[in-house]
Amino acid sequence: MKTTSLVCLFLLLLNSQFTIAQTTVDDPEIKKMISEVKSENMEATVRKLVTFGTRHTLSDTKSNTRGIGAAQRWVKSEFDKYALESNGRLTSKIDFFTIKADGRRIAADTQLGNVMATLKGTDATDDRVLIISGHLDSRASDVMDSKIDAPGANDDASGVAAMMELARIMSKREFPFTLIFVAVVGEEQGLYGAKHLADVAKEGKWNVVAMINNDMIGNSLSSGTLLRDNTQVRVFSETIPYLETEAESKMRKSTNRDNDSPSRQLARYIKTVTNQYVEQLDINLVYRNDRFLRGGDHTPFSQNGFTAIRFCEMNENYNHQHQDVRKENSVQFGDLPEFMDFEYMKKVTCSNLATFSNLAWSPKTPTNVGIEVKDLTNFSTLLWTAPAGKPVYGYNILIRETASSHWEKTIFVKDIKAEIPYSKDNFFFAVQSVDEFGHSSLAVFPVPIR
């Protein structure tokens, strides 16, 4: 009896310092925004983009009804409509640039243009930037055929429609720092639009917190295997950062943090937030930058040192991507709207919205995050420095077993140092800042402190 009392006293004292399994705080404004996501809006956007016949990067730029130029101008006109409800904070443009002939998929020097909407932040001292994209261009079987119909309903009018739905909803709200919504071009010809924007961001020293790429998020039925699943979506993230320094490489190896790159932390963040806000959708964390034989617009951002991931449907249907529109043996080929699952696409868009808005309202990440390794103990001591800027309500210490892909436990603390009853030899940890409404920053992996 006496031993039991001592154990209870110890646990009481322990829990007075921090809270295990903190009650999750749902932001009613985020829930309201999610309720505003409409599958019929996105279906209308997809079908409108299909009406341009082809959106091939090298297609007609002069026509008002067909080709990439007409599609660009229409997307910008939609951004301009959203701007009317933004109190002047949302502005749009077509960011033109020239690509030299590459001897492969760009036959001659060509002017391209990304369609961008920028939502200006309310805090002039907060230089953070969030970017969300889909690619506007489409293709058929021959990547160089700019004349044939290439509807590109799922690849990637789906990503563009999701991005535009976020712009429509979020432009009515205020966020402390800059959000960029962009329909990039040149993806099928070599990721040229994304590379241009990533280079602009790098040269301009933009503080890009995260880049989210949506590419094919509207199909739930696989070809061949005929698997149908509208409850999972893949998030691809790189393991070792492209621009890892020698010092960072040594630290990664010494702490075994191969699965804790910034992009992996963003992917886990998406999984956590989606579980909180979106019903019947699970994030499948794919530990690859992208699929075999394919590429995505997040890659140029990763190559420039930014944190970037790709959303992509769980089951791909190869009858309806990169195919001429035709019928063979009673099988319809071509990327057409009638083969899309718009309710599935709505859920993926809600995941994007929950993630993007949480990050947009979050405090900055804690700095100087470390873990003490000077003593042999079954407890772990973590410490960090409070971030500048927006006030922090507290911090989440995230915990997972070393073989786990995602965070399994959360300890909430108010201080900037905590000793927790989990061995540093058996678990991985990270720390994120949290505001009073539950918006959390990205997680920071600790470095050893001797």
Distance between the termini: 40 Å
SSE series? HEHHHEEEHEHHEEHHEHEEEHEEEEEEE
For the largest sheet, list the strands in their spatial order.
Answer: 2-3-5-4-6-9-7-8
CATH architecture term of the largest domain: 3-Layer(aba) Sandwich
Average residue pLDDT: 93
- Content-based structural category: alpha/beta
The structural domain count equals 2
Portion of residues in beta strands equals 15-25%
CATH fold field value of the largest domain: Aminopeptidase
Number of DSSP strand runs: 18
- Tell me, what is the CATH class of the largest domain? Alpha Beta
Largest sheet entry: 8 strands, mixed
Radius of gyration: 23 Å
Q: Treating each run of at least 4 consecutive H or I residues as one helix, how many helices?
A: 11
Report low-confidence residues grouped into runs of 5 or more. Answer: 1-23
Q: What is the general shape?
A: globular
